[in-house]
Design a protein that fits this description.
The chain has 2 domains: about 1-120, 2-Layer Sandwich (D-amino Acid Aminotransferase, Chain A, domain 1), CATH 3.30.470.10; about 125-280, D-amino Acid Aminotransferase, Chain A, domain 2 (Alpha-Beta Barrel). The chain is about 30% helix and about 30% strand. The chain has 8 helices and 15 strands. The protein has helices at about 20-25, 45-55, 65-80, 125-130, 155-165, 205-220, 230-235, 265-280, and strands spanning about 1-5, 10, 30-35, 40, 85-90, 110-120, 130-140, 170-175, 175-180, 185-190, 195, 220-225, 240-245, 245-255, 255-260. The strands form 2 sheets. Strands 7, 8, 9, 10, 11, 12, 13, 14 and 15 form a 9-stranded mixed β-sheet that branches. Strands 2-1-6-5-3-4 form a 6-stranded antiparallel β-sheet. α6 packs across α8. The two termini are about 20 Å apart. The relative contact order is 0.15. Bound molecules: pyridoxal-5'-phosphate (PLP). Pyridoxal-5'-phosphate binds near residues 204, 208 and 242. Keywords: Amino-acid biosynthesis, Aminotransferase, Branched-chain amino acid biosynthesis, Pyridoxal phosphate, Transferase.
């Protein structure tokens, strides 16, 4: 695989990042994952805008412009013959001469930029037909989940807790209400109404979430943005998740309780279909 590191396209085995890089030492970095369908980028603008916001919130500079980022994404797709999968992008506050809590001066220490591709079956993912199971866990992350940082230890632990319990993923709960999945936004459907937590610093503002809610409204579906409990979710007609690489994926079990009829719901599957259709059409 050819990856991008600070201006160069290199074979992954030759890619180098300093041991002093603050992404490595302090999780001082932000990231994005953009999906690729038919060799084209899905909602690149949405991901680029969120990246700029994450950088601004952390007072971090980007080493390249958005236009340059688009070119790098496209070049990696080309060099790796990627037809379907994702492109991971990471910007960190670079590698100062020593480890220090204070941020380095960006004029002296440039940010690091790394991108790589991951080939994956997205549109025909088996989980879309079987549905996934989730467990609930406490949300122990920091309070700025709206910033897409590389601090992913707790979500990784959540995934492992789910695996241990024989489930696929974990929904995190704070003050009795679901925030989101370890790497996705969470939804339920009740009486035809789609319910998902409102935007705030408590959750990541999913790019897929924004597109799916817009498409739902365009299809005359009712949407309510509010928190919900695990008990309410277990009693719902349907549940599902969204993210750049899962699109819309039905949830059929929550903490061992079957949701609805225990199979992918009608609304989740419809949203998945219209989301994938639109994404194919609009991808660049
Ligand atoms: N919530 C969290 C915590 C995530 O990590 C992600 C994606 O990685 C999402 C939600 C979904 O965001 P998006 O639709 O932009 O992929």
């Amino acid at each position: 695989r050819t990856v991008y590191v600070n201006g160069d396209y290199v074979p992954e085995a030759e890619a180098k990042i300093s041991v002093f890089d603050r992404g490595f030492l302090m999780a001082d970095g932000v990231y994005e994952v953009t999906s690729v369908l038919d060799g084209k980028l899905v909602d690149f603008d949405g991901h680029a805008k969120r990246l700029e916001r994450s950088l601004t919130e952390l007072d971090m500079a980007s080493p390249v412009t958005i236009d340059e980022l688009l070119e790098i994404h496209r070049e990696l797709v080309r060099l790796n013959d990627l037809t379907e999968g994702g492109i991971y992008l990471q910007i960190t506050r670079g590698a100062p001469v020593d480890r220090d809590f204070a941020f380095p001066d960006p004029a002296e220490v440039p940010s690091s930029l790394v991108l790589f591709t991951q080939s994956k079956n997205l549109a025909n993912a088996p989980a879309a037909t079987t549905g996934i199971s989730v467990i609930s866990i406490d949300d122990l992350r920091w309070a700025r989940r709206d910033i897409k940082t590389v601090q992913l230890l707790y979500p990784s632990m959540g995934k492992m807790m789910a695996k241990k319990a024989g489930a696929d993923d974990a929904w995190m709960v704070e003050d009795g209400v679901v925030t989101e999945g370890t790497s996705n936004n969470a939804y339920i459907v009740k009486g035809g109404k789609i319910i998902t937590r409102q935007l705030s610093n408590d959750i990541l503002h999913g790019i897929t979430r924004a597109a799916v809610l817009r498409l739902a409204k365009e299809a005359q579906m009712e949407v309510e943005e509010r928190g919900f409990t695990i008990a309410e979710a277990q009693e719902a007609d349907e549940a599902f998740i969204t993210s750049a690489t899962t699109f819309v994926q039905p949830v059929v079990k929550i903490d061992g309780e079957t949701v609805g009829e225990g199979k992918p719901g009608r609304i989740a599957l419809r949203l998945r279909e219209i989301y994938i259709d639109e994404s194919r059409k609009k991808a660049i």
